Amino acid sequence: MRFQYRYYGESSVGNGAASTDMRFVPDTLRAPTHFVAEINKHIPFREAISALHDVVVADQRYQPKDKTAYKEWVAQNEQMMLAQYQARASTLKEQLQPLHSELKALQSRKSHLMKPFYEAQTKYYDYLYQTNRELWIALDPVITVHPDRVFFECFSRDESSYASLSCSHNVFDRIGDFACGTTNIDYSESLYDEFQKIRDYKRTRLSIDPGGFQVKTADDPEFIEEKIDVPDTWVRGFLQVSSAMNMVARRLDLHPMDVHNFCLQLRRKKERAGPRSIRFVLSPGQPVRAVFEPWNDEVVCRRSIYQGNVAEEIRVWGRRRLLLLERLIPVAQSFTVHLMGSGLPSFWIANMPDMQLTLGLSGWTANDWSHAGQFDLLAPRGEIDNDSKEKVFAALGKRWFATAAQLADDTGLDSKMVERALTLYTQAGRVVYDLVQGVYRLRELARDPLPLDTLRFASPQEEEAQKLVTLRAMSEHAVEAVADGSIRISAQAKHGEHKYHVMLRLDADERIVDGACQCNHFTFNRMHKGPCAHMLALRMAQAAQQAA
Length: 548
Prior knowledge:
Residues 500-543 form the SWIM-type domain. The chain is an alpha+beta fold.
């Protein structure tokens, strides 16, 4: 997917003895978005924007070993080793003859066994060579200005970590005229070093510069145009994060020293074998306990009492990404954690004075947000006409941010219809759910509407489910009410020559909270990679019958 940006100049930070001026250059091809003010919470903002940078450059994928030093040593000692060999050449040739034959046979066998690995390795290095530079630019932060807040969003380079820095207008003094909207900003690595020079005693000015929007001619040499091919996984990952934020999760409130103890544990020990998880032991009214595997070291969070109603254990992986929060510990007042379940994503919110940084982690590092689980498929589904959708979007456009209940009052529509519309706009990248404030916010991820035809099927399971529905492969489904207010739906799916019994349980908000199937996808993955094709087909068939 190709994105085109046009910046008027380059972002810069000017540091003097008495002031720091941060000038971010927005994309002039998008609707005018600008904001100019002075920052009054210097140190928390410096640490938060630096942590955001740490997320942008984070890449915890496996990196091959660097053999440069070894090759230099070989080059330096090659002549000496060659002289030693020549002195004993005749004797060694006789000894080498049988070894050469054996080695040739072993190399042939090794080549056959390692062929799939070498092919995958070649594809990996080709991918890095072709896309690494463009990915660095594509993952620049997206900035949104709203009447009450300014927030930055970004993805890590390995696409397994998402971060959003949300700043209330209370963080700023002398706010001038500003234009609400969403834009991309020119952001380079050199800015990071300048951010470190922000001090309490220096006036700090933040400027999302409106200058480029006032230039009438596009031939001005100051304009910098960039055309970047962004992987579909980056766009789909953003959409998955927005959908996951609105899912049901267990909430924990942690003291900053508890997060410090987590990071200390990760700094002190390096695991050499699995499991590499944190196992949260949650008991109502008791301190949160975190067990670090495989050592089974327990960290008791005595300042943090679990307020939930059910005792349970939840395991999360990819825990070393928590070190991205390390520099926020001194300036954070508390941390709020949302755990979606074992092996599922989690959200860690650092609460600072009038600022929050939300770190969204996929289920584990190698499973990026694009493949972390099809959370848009778990969200409530249902038909809604275009007029109602546009009415909801227009109402949100007037407020910029609102709850579903407020939009239902504004439009006169049923609250479930409003939620369906918001879900569709969230999946289209035009609306984002604010996990901190609990509201929906207008946020256009791209200048032009996203090509949802190419992004429609985020997984082979969803595409297969659509085929099953089209072929009417689902039997009549039975619906059973459960005491807790949820409903259980069951049916039989015919897939080729096989028949599978399928079950889904939807909560009162029509979200999938549990399911079961007899197919291989569910047997091997359970719900960790989202529902299987037969569950999705059952969900689609049930939604279609409801609409009818």
